[in-house]
Amino acid sequence: MSTRTPSTGKPRPGSTLTVWTPEDKAFWETEGQAIAKLNLWISVPALFLAFAIWQMWSVVAVNLPMMGFNYTTNQLFWLASAPALSGATLRIFYSFMVPLVGGRRWTAISTASLLVPAVGIGFAVQDPTTPYPTMLILALLCGFGGGNFSSSMSNISFFFPKERKGSALGVNAGLGNLGVSVVQFLSPIIISVGLFGVLGGESQTIVNKAGQSSEIWAQNAAFVWVPWIIIVSLAAWFFMNDIADAKASFAAQAAIFRNKHNWLMCVLYLGTFGSFIGYAAGFPLLIKSQFTDVNPLAYAWIGPLVGALVRPVGGWLSDKLGGARVTLWNFVVMAAAVVGVLVFLPKGSGSVYALPFGPAEGNFTGFFLMFLVLFLTTGIGNGSTFRMIPVIFMNLKTGLVKRNDEAGMAAAIKEANTEAAAVLGFTAAVAAYGGFFIPKSYGTSIAATGGPELALMAFIAFYLLCIVTTWWFYARKGAEQPC
């Protein structure tokens, strides 16, 4: 018997949905599916822009020395990793904003906030005398883009029924993550032309290692996103929806902090998304430090592209095979791929942690292919872990309801959706710190030992912890929460 309240008419774009029961198949078929898809397809470009702004410094930092900015290597690593630090911190707060403010309102507001770093960076990079603290503040402001992920995933999770959450969240995150790859691919192209004419500012002269000079418009890497941010912010405000049932106090959402599965999934998502965003942020500088004859910007964008495109596949596979099973084997492959990276690193750094086998001068092809495997598995793992969360919390809540208690079941589903959305956001917040720690681990390892090997070995140890955690709590026979 259906518990759905009859709809009073077709909801209009921009309105608050007073009736939203996606688990009711009749409602989903007649009304829910179309509304959910509209909100998803506006959320995707909003999240795409957020990732583009968040990861802009992974490209901009590489070019600054040639433009006359006298920053040290350590300062450049800080600029590449600072957006992840602020973005991860903002995600903690953004995790709870959708039930407090509303998904439509918050998507529009948070997307519009990206204008601040985009415009600021566009002006700052035109002047090589810009103080380093100013650049660092602008890098931290790019964290607005990182914060948006938590609220975006939390919002979309409310719109879809349990059996479609994995695919929907995978599409939202996967296509949104493409912003990382696109900004790394597009930036070197658009800075080579005077895209905005007199409105965009003067060109800058850069000098490469060979002493050859050329003109670039570095500000284009930031200014190119400004019109799109404005368009998508307006689209979110006028065409997305708020959900009345998604409203919840902070106290109701804070119940997740007493649930151990929130913290366990933080660990697993740090291993997947944390790896994705960390490898993406540090890949260009790692290539530059280990293979000096290779142009990092010619290759760095490919890894994030692979990871982003495969993320929906991770969600889809998990809908079919189970999130825990996919996550478990995914971590096994990730650990093996890092071993492969260690094999193909150059051995001339003098690091005591360098492997005693593999080509002494390193092999960029092998190194690059191993990183492609890593990006592939981070994408699949992103989708599978995010599929696990709604299932775990739905089973926890509905498993306590007596059979034929329709009112109790409806209340349990609402509570499960609220807590799962908060967990989706909070785990994404914790995982985003990977974008800071991975590039900084490279820098620290190189400074302390001469090479990045020690950092990579630490990553392997962490993946082994994730394997054990996934198996014990979610994947083994008789696991506490099979999913």
If you had to describe this structure to a student in words, what would you say it looks like?
The chain is mainly α. The chain has one domain: Growth Hormone, Chain: A (Up-down Bundle). The chain is 70% helix and 2% strand. The protein has 19 helices and four strands. It has helices at 25-54, 57-63, 73-94, 97-101, 103-112, 115-124, 132-141, 143-159, 162-190, 220-223, 226-239, 250-253, 260-290, 302-321, 323-344, 364-398, 406-432, 434-449, 453-475; strands spanning 16-17, 204-207, 213-216, 242-243. The strands form two sheets. It has a two-stranded parallel sheet with strand order 1-4. Strands 2-3 form a two-stranded antiparallel ribbon. Helix 3 runs antiparallel to helix 13 and helix 18 packs antiparallel against helix 19. The longest helix has 35 residues, at 364-398. The protein is globular. The chain starts with 15 loop residues before the first strand and ends in an 8-residue tail after the last helix. Residues 1-8 have low confidence and may be disordered.
Entry keywords:
single chain; 483 residues; mainly alpha; Growth Hormone, Chain: A; two-stranded antiparallel ribbon; 4 strands
CATH superfamily membership: MFS general substrate transporter like domains
Low-confidence blocks of residues? 1-8
Measured between the Cα atoms of the first and last residue, the distance is 27 Å
CATH first level:
Mainly Alpha
CATH architecture verdict: Up-down Bundle
How many structural domains? 1
CATH topology: Growth Hormone, Chain: A
Order of helices and strands: EHHHHHHHHHEEHHEHHHHHHHH
Which radius of gyration do the C-alpha atoms yield? 23 Å
Structural class assignment: mainly alpha
* Continuous helix count: 19
